[in-house]
Amino acid sequence: MRSYGFILAIPLLVLVGCGDTEPSSTTTEPTSQSESVPSTDNQEETTETETGQEEEFEVQEDEIGRSQIYMKNRNLGIEETMGPIIFQIDKVQTLRLEVASDYRFFFDDQKEVTIVSFNVIVENTSDETVSFHPNQARLVTNTGEQVDADIVISEDVGGEFLGKVKKEGGVLFHVESMPEELTEVRFVVEGPYDDQFRKIAEERYEYTIDVTK
After folding, report:
1. Residues 117-172: pLDDT tens digits?
2. 3-state secondary structure (DSSP) of residue 167
3. pTM of the entire structure?
4. Which 3-state string (H, E, C) describes 46-88?
5. What is the pLDDT of residues 39-90, one digit of tens each?
6. CA dihedral defined by 69, 74, 76, 77, rounded to 10 degrees?
7. What are φ and ψ of residue 103, in 5° steps?
8. Could you give the C-alpha distances from 28 to 48, 79, 100, in angstroms and in order?
9. Taking a C-beta distance cutoff of 8 angstroms, is the pair 89, 207 a contact?
């Protein structure tokens, strides 16, 4: 069995990353048999054919599989102060992943999966130890699913913050719905607590996020 560490490449590749530069392996391919749009230096935005009926999506391929990005929003602008914790969700995207055979055990042996990914930023502004776990959040979809964050393929953005620590990375959810079925999701996370396991903010925080294309 391969090391779990390699799978952390998923958020770095398929999440709407911290900067505006896409990985060099990124290509744009049509979902239909219609003529594809010539390659350009900027392939971040989804394009449409002249008819407006057929769409083309950003596609990324690597050892893990082939990811077709359905939607992305780099400017969510969600920010919450939770006691000494400043929590942000600044980016979201949905995608369909055709999983390479060597990595299907991460996804219950499914050949294709839908991923909803968020980029989060967490900062402890105090000198005290604070625990907060956005990588253990839950997602509720408009299609009636409730799932926990996939901690194996999410990045290490939770846990103990030993003083003035800042973490940023991807929180990923694996859902059964197709990306085009998703219109709205709720990101639900428990509030932070101190080293005596006492809550230092609200018990729970919920954020409703539009994921329509």
Report:
1. 999 999 999 999 999 999 999 999 999 999 999 998 999 999 999 999 999 999 99
2. strand
3. 0.78
4. CEECCCCCCEEEEEEEECCEEEEEEEEECCCCEEEEECCEEEE
5. 334 434 443 433 344 567 899 898 889 999 999 999 999 999 999 999 999 9
6. 160
7. -115, 10
8. 12, 32, 19
9. yes
